[in-house]
Amino acid sequence: MLEPTEVNTRQSRRLLRYLSVTDETPNDLWMEIAALLEPLDICSLQTTCRALNQALYRKPVWAVALRQVCREHCLFLPTFPIDEMDTHQLFRAAMGPYRFNSLIEGTGSFAGHADDAPTLSPAHGPFTMSIVIGASSEWGTTYLVPGGRFFLTFDCKVLALWDLGFVGSVKSVSGPEPRRMAYVDFTPGNFVVFEDGKGFMAVSMYQDSLRVVLFGGSGRITLEAFEISHFSETGASTFRHLGELAVDDATANVKQLVVVVDGDRAIIFASAGKLIIWDFVSSIYVVVKRVHDNLSSSPVGNRKLYIHNVLIELGENNLRITDVPPDFVLNFGKPVPLGGAVSLATAKTSTLPTPQMIQYPPPNDKVDEDRMFPSVGHWYQAQLPLLFDVYRQYKSGCTGVTRLSFTFTRSPLGGIVPAPLTCIAKRAFPAKRTFNVIDNLGSLHVPGGFNKPIVTSMPDMRAIEMAMMGIKLKPGSEIRRYIYSTAGAGEAFNKCSRSGCRKKEFAKATYKFCSGCHLVCYCSTQCQQAHWEPHKQVCKDQKKCNASGPIAPPMRFVKLALEVADPRFGVLGICAGSGRMVHSKMSVLDPSGMRYVGSNVHISDFLS
User: Fold this and answer.
1) Hey, is 374 helix, strand or coil?
2) Which one, of 444, 358, 439, 453, lies nearest residue 403 by Cα?
3) CB-facing half-sphere around the CA of 459: CA atoms within 13 A
4) CA-to-CA distance for 491 and 246, rounded, in angstroms?
């Protein structure tokens, strides 16, 4: 029998042998391991022993992890100067989506009244930055590139790309001045009859480059495509011109035009039931005649996106999916006319495969058709499953919202096989305020699996008009914005829904929910009784929202702390992958959902 000291000696030798193997493992192998794991799994391995912690906490490992996060969660890789970042910066950047996810779920609570939601304040900021949008106009449209560092602006006179600094690199309250990395000046008349400065653009990430399609005009629509693929840390970068297309359509107006971009293609939704598929790299196009069906929305009102060669249009009560074969443009396309325009009146048309229609769940109450607000929002992911919100304004005054999930597969013959719509979350918001979305380009980037939509709470239309004119609103009439999460009761620690308590539970899913609405939870009977009076009406409204189907998980809410007193300040972009928010004063609130901003923007970083 071995003595205890001899056993301990053998165990120590075995441990030293393992540590030696771990130390001697080539970096290339650890990089291969990191490429197969999520950052959370790498962190878990690091906690198992000191040897693995030292082996995995290396710059090459976390550089690979960051590249994997950008690829999996649709973040723009050039945002991060990987070669110049140290290990700690790489680690924090790779963990950004997970940290923002935990921040929302840890701070948010199941608030019956959105006003009761906890406030989410930034860790750094807001920083005020001067960004000139155009040479002489204070109007324009913007796009926050996923990752939070790059910011596109366009006003028909200048297209510019700004460097705001990557998240975590700036901690000074004053903040740095943004650097204009690249720009394109347009000569007067380049976008004819569109010189009032209301610029429109569609943006797509293509590998490590940005592709931008600008469009404007009335009667004759001008479209130009650009690409930028070199992002210099110190010097200037340049936009590369990819192509130009002019479309003659006597009934068209740019405010009614919708353009979506993916890869080498731009899909232009024109009037007269036609669309144009434009391959701006090959300089060919095809005009497609639309199938008239029962899509419950105007051509402008529905939301459109292009995923895996499938065109998805989100209407008020249903969605339409249309297959766009990869070789469709090559087979039926024509060269773009040089110096001329495509006439929709005389152009030969082709036909896409017959679209399929899928109905949304029925409304929970009588819909008020007179309250004109966007009915579908938060469709930002360019990946499956597609998550989006359906908003319905009811005659009773309350707002019902349903979170839906949609996906599809391909049959062996290549046909589209749609899956049934899945309800992710449901709730009703109280009357007297309108809860909805005001969508604009990049208003909330959603990395895969980290869906944190933003909701806007607005007073009546008169109050909104007063806010746009700069008139100070009465207390309670402000425009408020919230981020919500659909994490269920057992997925994160819950907080008491009474605003005066907010006590966090010791174990998950131990607090009891209201049996009437299943919307709020309480730590004790005393908190439930104290909160009943303000909760009573919300509970009644929520029962209507739950009446038409199974009860879905409620929503955890946090209120955004916009530290600017002016109610006209609106959110221009939030990147859920890095926790950065960009907001500015809304000079005009256009029905199309675009926001036009002045020369100052404010940046807030929510991750420390």
Assistant:
1) coil
2) 453
3) 16
4) 52
- pLDDT of 377 > 80? The answer is no
- State pLDDT tens for residues 515-556: 887 778 899 999 999 888 888 877 877 776 665 555 667 778
Provide the β-strand partners of residue 389: 377, 403
**Which two three-digit tokens encode residue 283?**
């300089």
Q: Please give the Cα distance from 499 to 562 (Å, whole number).
A: 20
Report the sign of the C-alpha dihedral through residues 388, 392, 397, 398, in that order. negative
First vs last C-alpha separation in the chain: 56
The pLDDT assigned to 276 comes to: 92
Residue type (1 letter), 54: Q
- Name residue 268's beta-bridge partners: 259, 276
Contacts 24+ apart (CB under 8 A), 306-314: 306/260, 306/261, 306/262, 306/265, 306/267, 306/382, 307/262, 307/382, 307/383, 307/384, 307/386, 308/384, 310/408, 310/416, 311/260, 311/267, 311/352, 312/386, 312/406, 314/376, 314/379, 314/388
Size (the chain), residues: 608
For helices 39-46 and 59-72, the axis angle rounded to 10 degrees is: 150
Q: What dihedral angle (degrees, nearest 10) is formed by the CA atoms of 88, 91, 96, 99? A: -90
Residue 5 has a pLDDT of 46
State the average pLDDT over residues 202-219: 85
- Determine if the peptide bond prior to 385 is cis (ω within 30°): yes
Between 284 and 6, the higher pLDDT residue: 284
